Amino acid sequence: MRTPPRRTRTAAYATAAALLLGLAVAPAARADAERPQAVTLDDLARQSGRYFGSAVDNPELDDTPYANLLGTEFGSTTPGNSMKWDATEPRRGVFNFTGGDEIVNYAQANGLSVRGHTLLWHSQLPGWLTSRTWTADELRSILKNHITQVVTHYKGKVFAWDVANEIMNEDGTYRQSIFYKTLGPGYVADALRWARAADPNVKLYLNDYNVEATGAKSDAYYRLVKQLKAAGVPIDGFGMQAHLALQYGFPNQMGQNIQRFADLGLDVALTELDIRMPLPSDTAKLARQAEFYGRVTDACLAVRRCVGITLWGYSDRHSWIPPVFPGEGAALPWNGNLRRKPAYDAIAKSLAAAARETKG
Ligand code: G3I
Question: Is 272 noted as a catalytic residue in this protein?
Fold first, then answer.
């Protein structure tokens, strides 16, 4: 996986972060090797060979305290919107990589790797694509060109692509998107092959929500991945978005579900983790949220090929949830003032335990 090595932090930064974490700070005279080095979630994740990331939307980079914390605490980022089709190909054949490049540049300057999101999705498509019908040949050519141009542009700059996002319905049937309706189910294999042709090294993922538990939807992906593998179609990973909610309970058999995809020879990643709750938050809800975050992290860390976890934004200051689910929110491990919630400690504890096991 092309996750660039994390930059080495200065002792001054490590000390400041250790103070924030409440860890014992090594006395100045103590040998470097004895200093507490693993002080961020990404540092802890790296000790067991994973990354810990957070998505970011371009306007959030102007929020300096937010951007600074993103750049220090996390090892990977995913653009929340700026690599989607409406942003990258706003007119047919006219590509605009400004927003995605801004995030790649920010990531490179701060030593973060980038997950590409997303090449093909039924949502956030440009008007020119959705406002008329296309023949299968036309749409195939449009899709191939889009994937080829975008993957080529970000070759060597993103380590993974969510090639196809949210292609299944809850009952495990294909979503009736413009792609499915015009091209039939073969469009998924085509998209993966075109992405591979444009970048032989990038990891190619299918990605969806409500697939953390066993059930009709994750079963459909399991069958599809098996078919794709049997047909020699390039696929490297399965992304479980993990948009969870306290009121719906913890996903049934999440650990076993991650394991069965890994057993197909795939990497698995938790790609958009957040755990919302009915507002207002209170101590009991925050404690339950922390328990869920710890269990999700444990579920990933129990599977060797669960390669990383990405939060869909890390703070309640910037979250997609309140406008989409009125009356719900408080979903992230940092609150709106960028203060850590109990969820942070639960994640750190889980990551530290896995790090100790790796060492032992
Ligand atoms: O860019 C326009 C801006 O010009 C306009 O003034 C403003 C007014 O509402 O809207 C802006 O577009 C918004 C866009 O985010 C960029 O901020 C859209 O309204 C808004 O709907 C869009 O929401 C995004 C959502 O995907 C769209 O479905 C969220 O930010 C983004 O976090 C969310 O991400 C998705 C993943 O891609 C896939 N999985 C689910 C996840 C959460 O919905």
Answer: yes
Q: Is pLDDT at 282 greater than 50 in this prediction?
A: yes
**Is residue 287 in some structural domain?**
yes
Best probe residue, ligand 1, of 124, 205, 243, 244 (max atoms within 8 Å of C-beta): 124
Q: How far apart are CA 68 and CA 221, in angstroms?
A: 37
For residue 6, the model assigns a pLDDT of 52
Q: Catalytic residue at 170?
A: no
Among 160, 195, 140, 131, residue whose Cα is nearest residue 270: 160
Phi, psi of 11 (to 5 degrees): -60, -35
320 pocket-lining for ligand 1 (C-beta < 6 Å): yes
Is residue 244 in some structural domain? yes
* Host domain of residue 158: 41-359
Per the model's pLDDT, the better-predicted residue between 148 and 34 turns out to be 148
- Give the distance (Å) from ligand 1 centre to CA of residue 81: 6
Catalytic residue among 60, 73, 166, 212: 166
| Predicted pLDDT of residue 4 | 43
Q: Is residue 9 part of a domain?
A: no
pTM for the full model? 0.91
Spatial contact of 246 and 275, defined as CB atoms under 8 Å apart: yes
Task: Say how far apart CA 20 and CA 69 lie, in whole Å.
Answer: 12
Q: Which of 73, 89, 212, 272 is catalytic?
A: 272
For residue 23, being part of any structural domain is answered with no
Distance CA 351, CA 294 (A): 9
Give the pLDDT mean for 159-184. Answer: 98
**pLDDT of res. 152:** 99
Q: How far apart are CA 287 and CA 334, in angstroms?
A: 14
